[in-house]
Amino acid sequence: EAQVTQNPRYLITVTGKKLTVTCSQNMNHEYMSWYRQDPGLGLRQIYYSMNVEVTDKGDVPEGYKVSRKEKRNFPLILESPSPNQTSLYFCASSPGTPGLEQYFGPGTRLTVT
Amino acid sequence: DQQVKQNSPSLSVQEGRISILNCDYTNSMFDYFLWYKKYPAEGPTFLISISSIKDKNEDGRFTVFLNKSAKHLSLHIVPSQPGDSAVYFCAASADDKIIFGKGTRLHILP
Fold first, then answer.
1. Closest among B57, B73, B107, B60 to B87, alpha carbons compared
2. Which of A4, A59, A99 sits opposite B32 (nearest CB)?
């Protein structure tokens, strides 16, 4: 089954404790992206990757890092999480540019206390 | 500065009638426009898209209209069904980036 998986689905952590949210897709898609969804703000793009070893900033990259060492995986790293990073995070992939259909993962709800 | 605006946070429509969701944008460089649907506790799912060189795209009950001179697009759902109750996000893409609107919550009334 074609899908995007994210882990963990739920995470509660404390300020400053490094964490990684994994994202994996099995569709051989070139484009992958991370978004955060906050009440009243919709979906905002954090980082995206056009292919292996190619990543770029979206609209809200501060406080986040990503890597794309393999085509299928695109982890999101929070080196020193802060409470304002409490949010619902989605990973997505697409066969090409984001102008094509993106397939979204189920989301990761992160709470930073 | 919001580049993609969905000015109606919510919309209620009777089952069987037409639902019209609206979206405005400011950047004339956007070349693709998309609509995504989102149920609670799930990721968004793609609904329909339109290229900037077209003014209409249809897929079953869903039609997207693009008015480039007004920088406006709309999604029409006919007829509306109970399963259409969800949050709808408008999105616009240029180069490798994509901007989403804040979403419109659609309620289909029995």
1. B107
2. A99
User: Shortest CB distance from A107 goes to which of B43, B45, B46?
Assistant: B43
Residues B81-102: tens digit of each pLDDT: 999 999 999 999 998 889 999 9
Identify the closest residue of chain A to B35 by CA–CA distance: A101
In this structure, are residues A8 and A106 in contact, taking their beta carbons and an 8 Å threshold?
Answer: no
Rounded to a whole number of angstroms, the distance from the CA of B81 to the nearest CA of chain A is 23
Q: Are B88 and B35 in contact (CB under 8 A)?
A: yes
pLDDT in tens, chain A (113 residues): 889 999 999 999 999 999 999 999 999 999 999 999 998 899 999 999 999 999 999 999 999 999 999 999 999 999 999 999 999 999 999 998 877 899 999 999 999 99
